[in-house]
Design a protein that fits this description.
about 400 residues; alpha/beta; nine-stranded mixed β-sheet; two-stranded antiparallel ribbon; 16 helices; 11 strands; globular
């Protein structure tokens, strides 16, 4: 028999817990006014603030979504498509300013920079038939992003890039998973990729040890069914009230608590990501996604493979995947991902284990570069938010792109 839990005492416990972590783990930060201002700007305005040209492009996918790409245009430049991770947005590529962020650095090198916002985040919430309050709108994971969003964006970019038949592609986290899904199921698009650079590539989860990931995976089916029965299809709820509450809590009330839980997901590295960045990061992250997207990852943990989404219903799996007698969803065909691929990964990443990336590298047919980050504490979010990411990673990436452009690789 379970004892009835007094809700008032439960809430009080959590408040005590959050405040205890907040005040025990760090001093209250003093924020730079520039960071506070940048945290409240959207991506196009952030780009304009630092003196770069900015464009907004709406791209229609085959299944009716309208996804938004933010561009730092460079007429005549080699196009490069940047795709963010789960719960993130285009802002991740410009958030730390012109001296650090990859979007600006690529523009400085003459590249035509396109930053995609995948379906469901704060910039891509339109559909031709559904609105965001309907469950059909949220019926997607990285799979649909891969077979619909990415091909639509690649075609759109190439149509507006005179003389270019290929794009450079950079993905972080979910941006890599969705690319692998595209390569598996729409291999014709591999001919349109000049080089795919995968930052913290996510596919296999056999060796992940992050507490948040492993606990979620253990109860993934229960969580999925519970949220569905409650009519919750989006996490977190993206609305003005939620955004303001999250921003104030993680910026002014419990910033160190928010940092603590972020590190429990991604890996602890206080040297590269300081709590003083709270107003900047909390203003842009999380940007929203579907419950299904999060649960798809949960299904993969310790599954032994890289599988399509399991609907926990053999009839539904057969209907979705068209394989007679298929009770379990099929695995992705990673051998189809035959474009040039560069893999960048790290030891302190709680979402992407070294052994899992090395397994991926043995399967992909055309890995031209593999780089394990030398800095031992480099974690999952340092790939986009680390203060030294330019010298640790981006300069190597740009040199690699230039070698490919010159035909040396």
């Amino acid at each position: 028999m379970f004892r009835r839990v007094n809700f008032k005492y439960l809430c009080g416990y959590f408040i005590w817990f959050f405040m205890h972590i907040n005040f025990c783990y760090a001093d209250l930060p003093k924020y730079n006014k520039t960071l506070v201002e940048d945290g409240l700007l959207n991506t196009p305005d952030l780009i304009k603030k630092y003196g770069y040209p900015s464009e907004i492009h709406d791209i229609e996918t085959e299944d009716g979504f309208i996804v938004t790409a933010h561009r730092i245009p460079k007429p005549g430049g080699q196009p490069v498509l940047l795709v963010h991770g789960i719960q993130d947005s285009s802002s991740t590529w410009v958030l730390l300013g012109p001296s650090i962020s990859l979007g600006y650095l690529l523009s400085q090198q003459g590249y035509d920079v396109w930053m995609l916002n995948t379906r469901g985040n704060r910039y891509s919430r339109k559909h031709k038939r559904y609105n965001r309050r309907q469950p059909q709108f949220w019926d997607f994971s990285f799979h649909e992003i891969g077979i619909y969003d990415l091909p639509a964006a690649i075609d759109y970019v190439l149509q507006r890039s005179n003389g270019f038949s290929q794009v450079h592609f950079v993905g972080h986290s979910q941006g890599t998973t969705s690319f692998l899904a595209m390569g598996s199921d729409r291999p014709e698009y591999m001919k349109k990729i000049k080089l795919m650079q995968a930052l913290a590539p996510v596919s296999f989860f056999d060796y992940v040890e992050g507490p948040v990931v492993t606990v979620t995976a253990r109860y993934v089916r229960l969580i999925t069914m519970t949220l569905k029965n409650l009519g919750i299809y989006e996490l977190p709820p993206e609305n003005e009230t939620w955004s303001k509450v999250f921003y104030k809590f993680c910026t002014f009330l419990i910033p160190n608590t928010c940092a603590y839980f972020t590190f429990q997901m991604a890996g602890v590295d206080v040297d590269q990501i300081s709590v003083t960045l709270a107003p900047l990061l909390a203003g842009h992250w999380p940007s929203g996604s579907s419950v299904k997207a999060l649960m798809h990852y949960g299904q993969l943990v310790h599954s032994g493979g890289f599988y399509k989404y399991d609907y926990y219903n053999p009839d539904e799996n057969r209907r979705r995947y068209g394989e007679s007698g298929a009770i379990q969803p099929p695995q992705y065909k990673l051998k189809n991902v035959n474009c040039k691929v560069a893999l960048f990964y790290s030891r302190n990443d709680l979402l992407t284990a070294v052994k899992d990336v090395e397994r991926l590298s043995r399967i992909l047919p055309n890995v031209v570069h593999k780089q394990l980050m030398a800095y031992e504490k480099f974690n999952h979010i340092d790939f986009v938010w680390g203060k030294d990411v330019r010298t640790m990673l981006y300069e190597d990436m740009i040199k690699l792109m230039q070698k490919v452009d010159r035909g040396e690789i």
